[in-house]
Amino acid sequence: MSDKYGRERLLIIDGELAEEEQKQEIQYQLYHDCYMYALRSILKDTLWKIEEPQETAEPLYPREVNNIISFIGDRGTGKTTVLREFCWLLQNFRSGRKSSWINSMPLDEEAKERLLRIEINFTVLSPIDASLLEEKEDLFELILAGLFEKCEELWRGGSYTYENRYSKTREMLLKKFGEVYRNHKSVKQGDRQEDPGESVVTRLRTMASSKKIQTAFGELIDSFFHLVEGGNTNRAVDYLIIVIDDLDLNLEHGFQMLEELQKYLTHSNVIILTALSYKQLSLITESHFVKNIGYSAGGKNPEELALHGRELAKDYLDKLIPVNNRIYMPDIYTKSQDIEIRNDNEKKSIQAKKYIMLKNAGKMHIYYDGLGIKKHFVEKRTVRTLLSSVEFLNSLATVDFSEARMIKGKVLSGVSEKNFENVKKLQKKLVRAYGRNYERYNADIQERMIFEKTDEQQRRFFDDLMGIQLTRRGRYVAALKAENFKSLALNGNALSISYYYGDLLECIYTWGRRREQDKPLIHCIMASFTSEMVHEYICYMYSPDETKRSKSRRKLEHFLGEGFGNDWTGKMLPVRISEEIFSLAFFRTVEFQMINCYFPLERLYTFLMQLETAAYSMSEKTWQEKFIKEVGEAVAKDFEENKAIWSLQCMDMLFENACLNQQQMPALSFSFNIFERTFISLSKNTPQPHRKGLVLRVGIDTQQADFDILGFVKKSIAPQEEQREKYKKIFEDISAAIYKYVAEYVRLENAVGIEEKLTRKLTAQLKKQSIFEKFKTADAIAFPFYDFDLSYNIIKRVRDKCSRSFTQPTLLQDIVKNIVKIYGFIEEELTSEENYYAEKNPGSSFPYRRMFSEYPYIAAMKKLKDNEFFVRILQNNIKAGISPSIPETEIND
Fold first, then answer.
1. Which structural domain, as residue segments, surrounds residue 728?
2. Which of 78, 409, 628, 677 is disulfide-compatible with 383, CB 3.0–4.6 A?
């Protein structure tokens, strides 16, 4: 729940708490146990008070009073918050709240019953921030002032306004305040000047001492409680609560303050609550002892002196703050799985890590990996940084692109073209708002995150990296591996080294394992890449400015480099070919050997065999139309049945960086011709003539290309209309080959205009067979490589799954099934991430699983895994391309 200013009132709770404990009226339920142990320490003292026999005189050896309770933790762990809320709890410790806390404590039932019968009152003084006290300010005097302020408050209010009734109590209190203050001033100022007329006895009687101050303060406290109780001394057990925050941050006077607490305030009905870092307080105490002992003490050298000072500091703090009165703040980083957050007045709580992840997704459309076992770099170490991070994300605008996607989809489908200008205006507004978010978010990474996590050398490297153009940064990071991470410096030869996106993934994977100390820097680089590339993706997808979209597209393509995969990703699929083992998820430079593949055209052959040409005149229009229609239908059925177009398109998707005559090609280059062929079958291992038929022979003219099962990702950056256009030549070349054969077979040379009509008809029929027509989806990049943190972790886990699944090299004949299996692993990971982000989240919903599974190539591959023609064309070309000595295997019926 957020207020009218967009601020959230968050409840941070420990998920391990019992349901009844979570119902207690505290905001920060994470600190429930801190409150319980502090309160238990106080109440155990209360039990001692009611059980202690009443002494008629002061005992010779009174019970030692340990009345300092310390909330201990590092900066940002919530100590001040705990002090504030615990004080509120004590001020309201009565009726139902009292019984709830007492019953939840680890005490025996008899003790609980006794405590429930006792009235316990807490008077809480205003907190004192010890870190802000200057040299002339005195902690004890501030405590006195706070107590006096509380007395005046009581005199002004309620029944205490009757001066005549409580005048004696007031006079006594004022006298005690004066006595304590004068004694303290005297001790602070040192020996006073001797009065010549003053006797030694008088001087000794009036001399101030710490013991006198302690006694006078005790009497003052007793008189104060007499005032609080209205004279009824048997009514309740009363405690005065003195609250001192950040005692350890006063470096100059921290030890003197501790001494004052010990010397003057040890009263059984006074509880001193402090919040401090034990490490820092130990250093202050140790420094005090070392300074006062001196370097010459006992002939000790500095090292021995420091050790002696450390031992004295430990002993002193053990006495002043015994272990049973030390309340340690919970470490939300180490127990992050149990830390949950919910908005006030909402019943459902969310794990803290997930809460931050959802915030990032809602505001920045960044989906960090939520499934990693190790700590993620967005997880916060302290409550302060957690709440600060939430406030920062809340300060960003919520930019929801769903409306723009919906309207844009209608415009592209021709439903609402008149609204196109409105869509452009909406897109411009959204992209501008997102851009403002991005500038702040990315600056936070480059300033706060890098400063918090890294050392000076790592910061210099990061700054140098940020000085390089975004399109080249991936290359420079990947180039670190080329030098085996010998030094933390940019490689001057990075631009001359070939670069694939997989090289960057491998570098991140290896770097953290070679140089453990650099992991914080790696996290900053991953965060920076994620922020910047998601921003480019948003601009590419939604900016109405074509120039800006083109720039963002180029940046996305440069980030992938020459392709997605590399040898590291290639190890996902080990394949045995002729006693050799190859890593075939990626294989650099397959040399094509003009291996042909044959697709049967049975229906076209049957149609031509049955055609009685003598019965028709080629010049008749009606015959031409019928002929064109029936040829088109026959061809459509043949290609639908054998999935030839799908096979060729998916074949092209699996190869990157195709070269023909040393020229880079946007796609594989195919050649087609149709001829009559005799199919054979094997009978008792002897080839036997079977039947004749037509086949479409497909040859690959491309000379070489990289084989990459993830190569489709880079191709998917292009809009699907552009991808459709890329395959137009295939449809036209196949149509021309069919026409050439049919024209010779039927002798169509006298049929005027039939060539154009027939090829146009065939091209239209083949276009319908395209995977981009069969699986129409909105434009979307198939895999979120730009969401770098998510992409890296998914590919890393998929590699692990492959290593467990393919424990032995697989057979080449199963390559398509295994490629589809790997795509299934990726889809499983994306589905798991989608489930992680399934919470209702304003501004975003996890889109990547749908974008992957619905991408036309992925949808087609699932259906082609058992297609013998596709399996054979891929198998033969890979076999010949990486091991040319292995003979080709042809398709036979």
1. 573-772+867-882
2. 78
